[in-house]
Amino acid sequence: MFSDFNGEKEAKHNSKKKRIIIGIIVAVLLIGIVLGVFLFKVLRKKNTPDKKVKDRPDLQVMLLEPNPYSRPQIPLVKVNGIVIHYTANPGATAKQNRDYFNGLKDSKKTKASSHFIVGLDGEIVQCIPCKEISYASNSRNKDTISIECCIEDNTGKFNKKTYDSVVELTAWLVGRYNLSCDDIIRHYDVTGKLCPKYYVQHPSAWKQFKKDVQDYIDKHGVKNTK
């Protein structure tokens, strides 16, 4: 009978101990969740620019015809970056590059396209809606907006009109998707491809480009409330 009493007492003790351990585990998990949410908000706020450009630049909407080679109409669910490219065909216009992408539905030579093409006169042509992927940035097609830039010669350097329009377009897209200038990358940064050529071969020029985008946001942006 004394043994039964001790056994019952030990069982109650073990049950109480188990409840305490479970309580500690639950508390630790809750603290972890709270800290995780807090850190997420802090980091998000840190990476979110203070200003955003709200006014869309002038552009010509010339969407590609839906097809498996250049406009597959696959949804672009989340935009995490802006990728800068160059066309690698000196002298070709934005319209000519757009027509090349559109013609892939017939030629079936390859899969290629871009959301936007910026021409030699600074004109901006939109080829694909921003809610769809383009075939431009390999593994980052799924979460980036692509910008192709026309060039005058084999150096791959953007002329002033092209450069200024790319800066404006990129600044607007950064604000539209609540990104920061750290989210602007080159095709080179995804695959190691020499694209955009001049801005791979001249890292200081690429650094200046990103600075110019930030300066544009600082000058023309409004307070970012998100």
From TrEMBL:
SUPFAM superfamilies, sorted: N-acetylmuramoyl-L-alanine amidase-like
GO molecular function: N-acetylmuramoyl-L-alanine amidase activity
Transmembrane segments: 20-43
Reaction(s) catalysed (UniProt annotation): Hydrolyzes the link between N-acetylmuramoyl residues and L-amino acid residues in certain cell-wall glycopeptides
InterPro entries: Amidase/PGRP_sf, Amidase_domain, NAMLAA_amidase_2
SMART domains (UniProt xref): Ami_2
Domain named N-acetylmuramoyl-L-alanine amidase: residues: 69-204
Primary enzyme class: hydrolase
Taxonomy, superkingdom: Bacteria
Keywords: Cell wall biogenesis/degradation, Hydrolase, Membrane, Transmembrane, Transmembrane helix
Entry-linked Pfam families: Amidase_2
EC annotation from Swiss-Prot or TrEMBL: 3.5.1.28
Gene3D superfamilies: Peptidoglycan recognition protein-like (3.40.80.10)
Gene Ontology terms: biological process: cell wall organization; peptidoglycan catabolic process; peptidoglycan turnover
Protein name (database record): N-acetylmuramoyl-L-alanine amidase
